[in-house]
Amino acid sequence: MRYITPRKAAQGLGSARSGTHHHWQMTVSSYALIILTPLFLIAVGAGIGLPREELMVHFGRPFPGVITALFIIVGMVHFIKGTRIMLDDYLYGNVNKLAIVAANIFGWGVIAAAVFALAKMAFTTPAI
Amino acid sequence: MADVNRGNRPLSPHLQVYRLPIAAVTSILTRITGHALVAGVVLLAWWLVAAVSGPGAFAAADWVVRSWLGFLILTASTWALWFHALAGIRHLFYDAGMGLEIHEAEKASWAIIIGSVALTLLSLIIFFIS
Asked: In sequence order, which residues have a C-beta less than 8 Å from that of residue A92 and are 6 or more positions away?
C-alpha cells in the first residue's frame, strides 16, 4: 500500500492517464522547430537546383546535413504527436487506433528514408 | 408548454452560412497547414532518397521539384511552414496566459496572416537572389 492521498495519485494524470506529457513534448519540439525552421529553409534552399553530385556534396556537409536531418526528425515526431490530436477529434474506436498506427508508420518511414539519404551523402561524398 | 413560435425563432449559426471570426480562421488554418506540410516533406524526402538512388531516379524527382508543380508545392509549403510557426508561437503565448482576450487574438491573427505572407516573400527573394 502506498501512503499517498487519492488526490495526489490522480493529480496531473487526466483522462488519458499520461497527464500533460503529450502537451509538454509538443511544447519542447515547437521551441526546437522555431530555431530549426529558418536554418532548414536556408539549408534546403541552397540545395535546390544543384546537379546531383553537387547536391550530395552540399547535404554531405555538416550544417546542411545536420540541420535537415534534425528538422525532419523533430518535425515528423511533432507531426505524429500533433496528428494524434486531430485523429482523436475526428475518428473513434478501432479506426482511430489504426489511423494512429498509420501515422506512426508514415512519420518514422519518412524519418528513416531522409536520414538514410543524408547519411549516405555524408559518408560517400568527399568534403569540399 | 406548447411552442407557439415554432419556425419563427432565430436560428443558431450554421457552419455553411456562418462567417467565421478571423481568430477561428487562423485557428483551423494552424491544423490545416500542419497537416498539409506532409506534401512538402514527402517531396523533399523523395528528392533526397532519389539523389542517393541513382541518376535516373534523381532526374525524375529533380524534374518535379523544379517544375511549376514543384514550385507551387514548395512555395505553398514555405507559407504553411511560416504560418504554422507563427501560429505555434501564439500557442506558446496562450500557454503563458497571454493574448487570450478577443481583441488580442484578432490582432495576433492578422499578425500571423501578414507575417506569414511577408516571411514567404522574403524566403522567395532570398532563394532567387542567392
From this structure: none
Q: Pick from B98, B96, B82: which is nearest to B26 by CA?
A: B82
Nearest Cα to Cα of residue B77 among B130, B124, B27: B124
Is the ipTM beyond the 0.90 threshold? no
Q: In this structure, are residues B99 and B93 in contact, taking their beta carbons and an 8 Å threshold? A: yes
Report the pLDDT value the prediction gives residue B2, as an integer from 0 to 100: 62
What's the pLDDT at A15? 72
Question: Taking CB atoms and an 8 Å cutoff, what residues of chain B touch A56?
Answer: 51-52
Residues of A in contact with B85 (CB under 8 A): 33-34, 37
Cβ of residue A87 closer than 8 Å to a chain B Cβ: no
List phi, psi (to 5°) of A117.
-60, -45
